[in-house]
Amino acid sequence: MPHVHKSQVYDSSPAQMWQRIGDFNNVHSWHPAVEETKASEGGVRELVLGDDAGSVFETHTDGGDLHYSYRIDRSPLPVADYDSTIRVQPHDGGCEVVWTANFTAEGASDEEAVAVIEGIFQRGLDAL
């Protein structure tokens, strides 16, 4: 099963970073690939992607101090059985954002699917 792990260090405090990224239904405010986040009942969100790339439907599966986990229910991405966690942790007076995912490649090779998810994660981390 492919695994993606990306992280990046920032000067802001963990609390400041979590205030920016911790709202499950506010991804569009910080990730440049997401034009709009539409919240639904039951912890479900629709991420409307830019460039007419479609929508990703995700369900919040776990959360706590400075982290949340979610699964993809439906998307145009080449993945299935996708589970992911985004976490903020202290790091040398600032913070580190750690974003991980496990999934099965679908409609693409493992390497291609990993490259797509790594690119999505990196683009989001770079925007912070």
List the helices and strands and how they pair.
Blueprint: E1 3-10, H1 14-21, E2 34-40, E3 44-49, E4 55-64, E5 67-74, E6 79-91, E7 94-105, H2 110-127
Characterize the structure shown.
- The structure is a single chain.
- The mean pLDDT is 97.
- Helices cover 20% and strands 50% of the residues.
- Strand 3 (44-49) and strand 4 (55-64) form a beta hairpin.
- It is α+β, with helices and mostly antiparallel strands.
- It has a seven-stranded antiparallel beta sheet.
Give the beta-strand count.
7
Class by SSE composition: alpha+beta
The ordered H/E elements are: EHEEEEEEH
Tell me the β content: over 45%
Tell me the radius of gyration.
14 Å
Instruction: Give the uncertain stretches in residue-range form.
Output: none
- Please give the count of helices: 2
Strand order of the largest sheet: 1-7-6-5-4-3-2
State the helicity in percent bands: 10-25%
- Overall average residue pLDDT: 97
Largest sheet: 7 strands, antiparallel
Distance between the termini: 28 Å
Q: Which geometry do the CA atoms define?
A: globular
